[in-house]
Structures are given as C-alpha cells and as structure tokens.
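The following block was generated as part of the benchmark described in Methods. Ligand: iron/sulfur cluster.
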Amino acid sequence: MNCPQTDSRSGRVVFVCQCLLNANAKVCGLAKYPGILPGLVESLAEQECGLIQLPCPELIHLGPKRWWQSRSQYDTPAYRGLCSQLALDASDLAGQYLSAGYSIAGVLGVEGSPSCGVEEVYDSPAWGGRPESVDLSGCRVKGTGLFVETLKEVFADKSQNIPFVGIPSDVKEMNRRLALLFGNTTS
Ligand code: SF4
C-alpha cells in the first residue's frame, strides 16, 4: 500500500451489496432483518475490512415500492445499461484502491436476487403481466444476477481480479462462506 503507514488502517476493503447493510432497499415483503444483516459487520470487522456499500440498482430503477420481479423481467437494455453505469463507477473506485496498493477482499452479493445473486437467482418464464401471488417453488434457479454479472464483466475487462461471494440468509452458511473467502475457519 502506497499510503504512508502512519495510522491504523488495514489496507483492505470489501464491496457489499446495498441491502446487506440496508434492508430498506429491499422489495417490500422480503426484508428478514430491520437494517443490517445480523453478524455481517462483526465478521468483516474481525477481518479488518473497510466496507464499500454498492448502490441498489433495483431501487434506483423502480424505487422502494416496486413489485417483485424475476431476472428475466429485469433483463432489458435499460436495466442492463443502468447496471453497466453503476458497475463502471464501482470499477473506477476499485481501480483507485488497487493502484494505491490496497487489497479488495471481494464483492458480497445477495444469493437468490435477480440482480445481486452470485450462484442463484429467482427466475421464471411464467412471471409477468398483472401482479398476483406467485408460486415460488422451482423459481430459485442456478444463475447470476444482472448487476453481479455486469460487475464481473467490467472487473474482468480491467483485469481486476476480485472474488464474488453470494451471501445467503442463513447465518451459519454466511459465516462458512466468509471463512472460505478470507482463507480461515474463524468468523
Ligand atoms: S438489487 Fe441487490 S442491493 Fe438491491 S435489494 Fe436487490 S439484492 Fe439488495
């Protein structure tokens, strides 16, 4: 790290998807905690990571009263354009940290999200038209959310080698994945 070592900083940051630190960004009806995902900040503090909160593309696109939507419904040129713009901003910031010698431990996505899922997303060709209750069985499928997909592409284009981890709602599984990310078994 080029920054003179005259203070207590760790030189390590992690990108965190918006709603992991702010449940108020989520679609109405889906928040499982009041504000910050319990245990996440404590785990990252143990790893001496600073947190960079990514913007919520769905909130910017459709606001806080948006309907639930599947990945396929979000997959439009306009939404992809927004994701690209936000991803480029994140990559520019990452570039500044990296060129100054900081390390970026990873990007923490939200498993299952049509935008921020890393390995799983909600998707179904049947969703669309007039809002109605939907049967979620079979809708959680393997895939990458549109924002995470774009972030991966933009980081790769700039040779920014940053790992992605999908954070699940289960705390034990979250801690297991964070332990893997940080190469230890404590968290
Ligand atoms: S788009 Fe991403 S940050 Fe926004 S609510 Fe969905 S998972 Fe959270």
